[in-house]
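Write out the 3D structure for:
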Amino acid sequence: MFIDSHCHLDRLELDKLGMSLEQVIAAAEKRQIEHLLCVSVSLAEFDAMADLVQPFAGVSISCGEHPLHQEGTVDELQLLKLASAERVVAVGETGLDYFYSPESKATQQDAFVKHISVARQLTKPLIIHTRDARTDTIALLKSHQAENAGGVLHCFTESYEMAKAALDLGFYISISGIMTFRNAAELRDVVKKLPLDRLLIETDAPYLAPVPHRGKTNQPAYVTDVAAAIAEVKAVSITELASATTENFYRLFPLAQRRRLVA
């Protein structure tokens, strides 16, 4: 069985897929995907996201504000209240993105620190987005004792040195369909070096559809294609890869109960 450890079900353009959300969930279940983590990018949209996935037993949720979705400073008390909900298994996604928004470094860093604080208070792991911010991401994790909450660097595309720094703090690394892209040779070299017991797999749907679905709207069912690509690079069977990443997911997110996708 597989797990899509990071998707955005509330951002799927179902018209483009020609599917209902129920059909998207069923397609994932048909490909032996037993659980999905639907990741929050906006506190303002959190309640709507939570309501959308409520009917599906095997869908957990996170709570946080993506660094590129901030409209101002993050209210830490609001984040704490929302992230305290029972079904919330993680805090985020949060982090730093200097590629698209270098001018908002200070605002991003302030929000990131608040997410780390909430994660520590709730003992819920962090889901971290990082791009072109290697030094600051690791520095803030260290200086604010983020290892006490744990977490994952999702959709990882950075260097092995950064991955190793995160691994040394007890964090996990999640790999998306980007590693199947033709120009991702460096990322594939990083994946070869990552320990199997600290890997997660994800789609980041509706974005970044893996080969052979490149150009289409991504969906959770395609996480098996990500798994197959990782298994090939690491020279392990897809069964071993699936088993390891599933166990890793439940170890990192213990509040995500082992439940099938449909109630």
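The CA atoms of residues 86 and 255 lie 8 Å apart.
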